[in-house]
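Lecture 7, part B: from sequences to assemblies.

Below are the input chains for today's worked example.
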Amino acid sequence: MKRVLCSFLLLVVPMAASAQGSGDDPAALQILDHMSAVIGELGSCSFTLKVSRDVNDGEMGLVTHFGVNDVYMVGPDKMLINSRSDSGHKGYWYDGNTFSYYSYDENNYATVKAPARILQTIDAINRDYDIDFPAADFFYPTFTDDLIDNTDSIVFLGKKNVDGKDCFHILAAGKSMGIQLWIADDSLNLPVKLSVAYYGQKNTPRYEATFSNWQINPELPSAIFDFVPPRTAAQITLVPKQEK
Amino acid sequence: MKAQSRKIQFVWTALIAAALLMPVPSEAQRIKHSPPKAAKSSGGTKRSINGGAQKSESRPGGVRPASKVSAGNKTSVGNKTNVGNSKKNVNINVDNSKDINVRNNRNTVVRAGGRPYGRPPYVYGGRRYYCHAPYYYHPYRPFYWGPVWHPWGFFVATLAATAIIISIENQQYHYDQGVYYTTSSGGYTVVQAPVGATVTTLPAGSQTVVVNETTNNYYYGGAYYEKTNGGYTVVAPTAGTVVENLPDGGEEARIGDVTYVKVGETYYQPIQKDGKDMYEVVQIEEGGE
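Predicted structure of the full complex, as structure tokens:
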């Protein structure tokens, strides 16, 4: 066993050693790591997320769509999202076993089986049904490392003020997209705003998400995560993206 | 022997190390995320939202690993994978109409309409969904064409004396007043109108539906008929055709942001026309973001 461990280190350490070099601002990484550490210890949370999203609309160029999401999460396996946007008023419930979707406008719903954890469910539902979970990136435990993997450099741009709140402004830039983050300049370092510019797409569309009304470790009744369809609602089928 | 055993151990160790260091990206919203690594977790419990933050041990000083393969080099980050990216636009439903097995709902496979679409398609999951009219949701309510009409799957023990036999591709059907049956144990079961079946007169209550500037169909009970020399022949639905009612047996299917009604293999988009709730036959083509 000792010999196996030594062999492992002989492989890993040289790679890490050769990795020393220019690159990211340590101050930016420290802020991101602290933000991730705080989020990683949350047993529950709720927040409001305002989203704007540019879509290339043929000859019309960029068209911006807006939405507001109220998000509630209890670890490891409860989530509720109440979403109002240009595509209507919708709700999403996850209770650890199933994921349910309900359209308030159309009064129809669908329920599918879901994995055992919040992030696994977000991954699966987004992959299979293209349902967007705005700003879910912040909740991945490897967020800072993933940001490093997906960009070429991460720099700290100084302190800024967003909607009256002092923030650390960070830019993570890559060839295909630029990600700007505003992290609260307080003891919690929670995300305040996210802006993504897609350089690789026509007209450089932008995605922006702004957090507000953060509640840390609130006591949320488990009943709010149980979806009960309205008596008159019609059950529909969610068609996976890859259905033939 | 010892040396060989050590060599094998070393190879296995190298393979495991390589696997651990090579991230397998998982789907996410804006950024590709790696699955949790065998790295030290800073806090978090089994009951926390994400199990605790994780930081790679390969960046002790917060410095970017220069030699690491960067997923950021992928130009498709944040973009959906283009499924079936063929230069040739193929209407998948029209292709399926070549299947002559009428037992398998082929009368609901869609024919291309021919009229150019003035509106861009709805794009989802590597397919493009074309409609002339904008999406206007109204709940699917199956329609019943009167007491002599029955939906697919309905069983009767005996047929009316007016029933006739129609043969299509060596398959026998019993036809009576717009309803097609096949024999089943102890009686007869209603099936979809088979493409190619010809009747001398249209069922009572048939409606004329416009296919394009030069062609009309006649619609009854979910089936479409065209005037032919022998009378009226069952044809597949044509993209762009608008009907008011859909038969029982349909299913509301949510595709992205649109709830279609799927009848057999035909997708209908709920629309509104002249203030009335209607359905338009959708043309689906492969390709799209």
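Note for the exam: The CA atoms of residues 124 and 195 of chain B lie 30 Å apart. Keep this in mind when comparing with the next example.
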